[in-house]
Every structure is written in C-alpha cells, then in structure tokens.
Specification:
The complex is a heterodimer of chains A (about 110) and B (about 110).
Chain A (H helix, E strand, L loop, with lengths): L3 E4 L2 E5 L4 E7 L3 E9 L5 E6 L3 E5 L2 E6 L4 E6 L8 E9 L6 E3 L3 E6 L1
Parallel strand pairs in A: 2-11
Antiparallel strand pairs in A: 1-3, 3-8, 4-5, 4-9, 6-7, 7-8, 9-10, 9-11
Chain B lengths: L4 E3 L2 E4 L5 E6 L6 E7 L6 E7 L2 E4 L8 E4 L6 E5 L8 E8 L8 E2 L3 E5 L1
Parallel strand pairs in B: 2-11
Antiparallel strand pairs in B: 1-3, 3-8, 4-5, 4-9, 5-6, 7-8, 9-10, 9-11
The chains are: A mainly beta (about 110), B mainly beta (about 110).
Chain lengths: ~110, ~110
C-alpha cells in the first residue's frame, strides 16, 4: 500500500523561529491535507493542497505532486503552534479514505 | 453548530461491554468517515458512508465493529464485547461531496476499556 512518511518526527523550536515539515508519499494521490492536532486532540484543517502553493497567515504549504512530496512552512512560530502536524493523502483510483503519516510532534518554547 | 460533533467525548467501558459512539456530521455533507487513532499514532481509516450507503468497511478491525447511518445524517459506531485493544480515540469526519474534498473532523471520542 501507499507509504506516507513525515519528517522530522520531533521538532523543538524557540518562539519566533521558522521551520519546514516534510511529507513524502509513494503513489499518485487525488488529495493531500495538512492538519494540526492540538493538545486536546482536535484535528484542525490547515490546507487542502493536492498541488501548488497556498498561504494562510504564518503558514504556507507546497505540494509537488509529480515528485510526490509536500512541505509545510511555519514562520515566526508561537507557543500555540505546539502539537502534532499530520499529512494525509487520498489515493488516486476511486478510494475515499485518507492515509495519514505518523506526524511531526512540534514543541514551541517561549 | 457549524462543525462535526461527537458524543460522548469520553467513555470508560469494562471489557466485554458494548459501546455506541455517535457522530453528527456537518449539515448537508454527503460523505462520512470513521477513523481510529491509537496513542502516539496517526488516525487509521475504519469505514466510509455516502449518504446512508456504507461503501467501504475495509478498515473495521473485526466483526465486533459495526457502523450505520440509516437516514444519511447521524452515524453510530458500535463496538460489541469491547477488548482492551479497542482503547483509542475514535474520530468522525465529513465532507461535502463524494469524498474527494476536504474532510472535516470532529473532536473524537476517547474510549478506554478496562
């Protein structure tokens, strides 16, 4: 089956620092979403980005579908950015289930 | 409410008990998904509904797990004769169309089986 690999697995930042999270996937996909899971467990949609680049405030994401990777950029990190960031893909070919990576655990310290 | 809601938020069950978890999707959303998230891992797909039709149940781990969405809106995930390995967070998600769009997740039900 498709492999979704996220890196790094863990990341510790000082408030104000920038970071890049990576998601590699092993097959063609119809959909790619980035989520932030907050400390209370809620999965928050960040981006729906099967291809191209999108920006939302301090966050931006780029997916290069032909090379099977996506990047999530966090600039000027804040303590509220702490949590787990998941990449999830929807396989091409009529499947509807999201396949999640293992996540990147981010801790931002003041 | 504008989002996906789930109840109960927390459930403690004794091994062997039956449990029922409820999901209220965003109004008008055609597609509904259930996922299971074990501690420290990413969510894993359980089952998918398009309106009232269960089109994919390939992720259900055993025949003790059963899901329904009889009127194409609210869904219930039932686990019979719970086991300790069923302890996890159960997440429900919905999407507007036929499943290729953004999936929106509820807050989850945290199940602990003792």
């Amino acid at each position: 089956g498709i492999q979704v690999e996220q890196s790094p697995p863990d990341l510790i930042l000082q408030e104000g620092a920038n970071s890049t999270l990576r998601c590699n996937f092993s097959d063609s996909v119809n959909n790619l979403q980035w989520f932030h899971q907050n400390p209370w467990g809620q999965l928050i949609n960040l981006f729906y980005i099967p291809s191209g680049t999108k920006q939302n405030g301090r966050l931006s994401a780029t997916t290069v579908a032909t090379e099977r990777y996506s990047l999530l950029y966090i600039s000027s990190s804040q303590t509220t950015d702490s949590g787990v960031y998941f990449c999830a893909v929807l396989l091409a070919g009529g499947y509807n289930k999201l396949i999640f990576g293992a996540g990147t655990r981010l801790a931002v310290h003041p | 409410g504008a989002g996906v809601s789930q109840s109960p938020r927390y459930k403690v069950a004794k091994r062997g008990q039956d449990v029922a978890l409820r999901c209220d999707p965003i109004s008008g959303h055609v597609s509904l998904f259930w996922y299971q998230q074990a501690l420290g891992q990413g969510p894993e797909f359980l089952t998918y509904f398009q309106n009232e039709a269960q089109l994919d149940k390939s992720g259900l781990p055993s025949d003790r797990f059963f899901a329904e969405r009889p009127e194409g809106s609210v869904s219930t995930l039932k686990i019979q004769r719970t086991q300790q390995e069923d302890s996890a967070v159960y997440l429900c998600a919905s999407s507007l169309g036929l499943g290729l769009e953004t999936q929106y997740f509820g807050p989850g039900t945290r199940l602990l089986v003792l």
